[in-house]
Design a protein that fits this description.
Radius of gyration: 23 Å
Structural class: alpha/beta
Number of helices: 16
Number of strands: 7
Distance between the termini: 21 Å
Strand order of the largest sheet: 3-2-1-4-5-7-6
Amino acid sequence: MSLFSQLFITLDVLLQQHRPLWQFQPMQADWPAELDPALSALLQSFSLEDCARIDASPALQQQYFSAWFPQLFAALPQLPMEVAEPQKALPFWLSTDINGRKWQQITRLAACVGQSGQPVLEWCAGKGHLGKVMSYLYQADVTSLEWQQSLCDSGQLRAGQLGLTQQFVCVDVLKQPVAAYLQPQQQLLALHACGDLHRVAAREAVVAGCQALALVPCCYHLQQATLYQPLSGLGQQSLLQLSKPDLRLAVQQSCTGGERVARLSQTEMLWRQLWWVWRRQQGFAYQPLRSVSKHWFSGDLTDFLAFAGAEHQLAPPDLGLLPGLLEQAEQALLQQRQLELVQHLFRRPLELWLVADLALYLQAQGYQVQLSELCAASLTPRNLLLQAVKNT
């Protein structure tokens, strides 16, 4: 049995065993009956500040919860951390208009996977920043696939100005044929390709017989199907049925954006809870509000409630009701955050289950597969790097 098979089976058993503790929506839920009374009492002793601190720290999670979930913590593999650096210094003009976190991820990935002269297919390229680094470092012929014409035009213009061998192709990889752009000798690279995008990348690379591929998956819930469709044989035998909200759990962790972003996020959670309290009092079932820009939560509560009312065709509460609703929302938010402390223990196991399913699929198609961490989680929590090389 391969290491990925063992990992998948172990995680599959644990996820099924503890389904009531993670496969629910904390904003709508009451205390699960399956929760140990002592654990429930511990959770209810935490303040909002405690919850934020523990949720952001794997060490604190283990400190507080390993007594209740020893098998869960023991199942998490110690993955190797990639330490490769680019073989030569990169000029400043390659990093123009790229934020620091993204640039570090690009250069780290390029250093991990590069081979001199090997053609590269950059999947979901955007402006092709990764492809430009690969072309510069390894003199690689790069084909960059991107569905937005404006990004292709911008990326192609910049590649020409820099004298790089990079060709952009405007194509929607989920809706249009891509076989013409894949070659057996290529290395396919996908940095933070979301959901269906990284799964389609793996399938297309297999069909084309690409020599190698490197995927850093992201946003597993962004898929067309209602339920997750496993790729591997073991995945297809699993009894787990994962909806889009279930899959979203795997990515409910982010790097800190500073005090202002944290404050706005807290306000957003509180105001959304207030709206849910109001809907419930009016006799309506839960219905999520769409994601909106953070600027909404630096403004006035009444503006947000007017937006929410327009979204759900429901009159917002009168101003006189807001103090009472805010008090109820604060209590509801505290319970939500307390419940999330346990639910979020299953974020990484679920993500590893999904990546192991992908790894097993590639192994079955004749690839040698390695899994590592591209970088520290402080740089990006979506740091799993799956590398596959075709057996010769």
